[in-house]
Amino acid sequence: MAEVVKERVQSIAHSINAEMKDTIPDEFIMPVEDQPILTTFKGPIPEIPTVDLSEPDQEKRVGSIVQAAKEWGFFQVVNHKIPVELIRKLKNVGEEFFELPQEEKEVYARPLGATSIEGYGSKISKGAKSWVDHLFHRIWPPSTINYQFWPKNPPSYREVNEEYGKYVKEVGDEILKSLSLGLELEESRMKEAVGGEEIEYMMKINYYPPCPRPDLALGVQPHTDLSSLTILVPNDVPGLQVFHHNHWIDVQYIPNALVIHIGDQAQIASNGLYKSVLHRTTVNKSKVRMSWPVFLEPPAEFVVGPIPELLTQDNPPKFKTKLFKDYAYCKLNKIPQ
Ligand SMILES: O=C(O)CCC(=O)C(=O)O
Q: What residues are labeled active site?
């Protein structure tokens, strides 16, 4: 068995909650300007776009995806063809993993000094700490999978995640197709620009334990995703917020919907037409929140940049063209691109 790492948020939360304390360690208290109690929008919530993927009229279906990607960089998708039963199983096996004894989870810990983010862990941040633990592992393409980071317990974890990988890829293809058509390009062009058949599907499970001070802490801190798209399943505890017109807006939970974030690579490929959405998560006083985002990322050596056909004298490149690994390095180390 691996050594138990004391600073997992789940363990910290467990001790605090067992002692019925009403405080959290200082390192989890966000600076005032980021505290959710002071910064969550309290007015009438604008309607966040929902897209029905079973809409038979292609123009309507594509139009609603394109409009949401331009205006919000964010939407929820219903009737997406991923069986409800499979989503339920995906959630069950993820929940069961996080309920395992701590030392069993540590078997999958991200190795110290590893270059990849794969594995079980907690976010290492320079400022305030995030109230969340996570597990990362690739689920597609098969040649990129490291099964060492896939839990063996529960035993159905592998089968369920492999099955989910196939379905989630279909959804990704469908959305990328629509984003291409929205740019008046061949339907395969956007996908080609963000990795083509080599797009890597990185699964993450976020586990946000109950937090005695949800007014002061955040689960994940404000960020945009490195990916082209992120396709996320949440549990039924709300917490995701998107930044829209200068306000942090609560995202409503829609049972069985998929949550879609437009990420940096779709913004860059479209030369800024599509918006990479800034988002964060709040935590809950008494309930565990969980989410299962899948990030669609180009391979490290893939060249990312605005799609050349889009560029004209009136639409000069707004972003540099570079290797994805260099883009990711700059972003993670907060170095200008
Ligand atoms: O939990 C969520 O709803 C969002 C998670 C997220 O933004 C992330 O893991 O990067």
A: 204, 223, 225, 279
40 within 8 A of 248, measured Cβ to Cβ: yes
Chain-centroid distance of CA 11 in Å reads 23
**DSSP β-ladder status, 50-52 and 74-78:** parallel
Report CA(156)–ligand 1 centroid distance (Å).
24
Distance between CA atoms of residues 162 and 140, nearest Å: 8
This prediction has a pTM of: 0.96
> Does a cis peptide bond (omega within 30 degrees of 0) precede residue 154?
yes
Question: Does some domain include residue 13?
Answer: yes
- Give a yes or no: residue 4 inside a domain: no
Question: Long-range contacts: 44-47, Cβ < 8 Å, 24+?
Answer: 45/249, 45/250, 45/252, 46/244, 46/245, 46/249
For residue 187, what is the domain's CATH number?
A: 2.60.120.330
Residue 3 lies in a domain: no
**Which residues span the domain enclosing 312?**
9-333
pLDDT-derived band at 6 (thresholds 50, 70, 90) equals: low
* Residue 2 domain-assigned (yes or no): no
Instruction: Say yes or no: CB of residue 240 within 6 Å of ligand 1.
Output: yes
* C-alpha 4 to ligand 1 mean position (Å): 25
Q: Could you report the per-residue pLDDT of 138-156, keeping only the tens digit for each?
A: 999 999 999 999 999 999 9
